[in-house]
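To illustrate this point, we now present one chain and its tokenised fold:
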Amino acid sequence: PFPTVSPRRYDQMASFYDKKLVALEQERREIQAELNRNVQSFRAEYQRKELRREYDLSDPTALRSEPPARVGDDDARIGASSLQRFDGEDLAAGERRRTQLAQQHAWCERQAAEKVAQLAAAKAADVAHAETVAAQEEYMNKAHEHHKAARAAFERSVAEENARLAQLKAQRDAEARAIDAELASAEAKKVEADPMINEDPAAAASAVAPGARVRVDHWKGMNYLQVRSINETVAAQREELESRRAAEAAAEAATANASERVRRALEQRAEQVEAFKREQRMAVLRAQNTQRAEKVERDATARSVLGVNTVEPEYFAQFGTSWR
């Protein structure tokens, strides 16, 4: 009996032989391609049309390849009975034509080089203009940032000064309140210790006859002049207090007015600076628009003037193709 082959082994053998057949087919194709290349190389080297014996019968450039009837006075092909000179012949025509073609080619190349140089110069001018515009924009941005920083520093200094003034005013107010409280406390203590104001009965006792006589200066025994003097003193103290408070209010109002005037002056100055900046930006914008318009017009002029008179390769290829 035949040995049993597993499906996996069968698949491996089928894959192996398939790869072997593919490799052999690839080798056969490479050998065939090499043979074809050798045949084509041999034909290109030894079997060209111009190497055939009868090629002169169908050579399209035969007349063009033939030398002229006479190339000079010492031409060996011309015998004694041959014509030595022809009417209108120009033996240097070919050399002169080649010289003219070379000169014309050099002239065209020089024109093309000049055109390329002009385009390069225009491009360099555009690049320089773009760099100038970029430098202007960078300068404007730096100036704006500097002004912004200066403005912020100024506003911080104003805020710090206002805070210092507010702290100083609060300190003055606290000191004034402390002085007022001290004076009020002293006055209260004085009033509390004054036997006359407190109407101390002992003050009315007479030293000559205690209990029998009273003192003339007893509170109950004051006359109207003393009462009016006291009232006038109290009124004067009230007026002094009101005048002092009015003076303090006037000083605070003056300080507030001065701060308001400084604030308005600063705002007016800031508005003037902003207006000047807007005018400068508008001037720069107008200049940039003018420069862009000039560039567009310059580019259009360059394309209309320099974009013509292009010499194509066919112009040079037509020379030397005919003896007519």
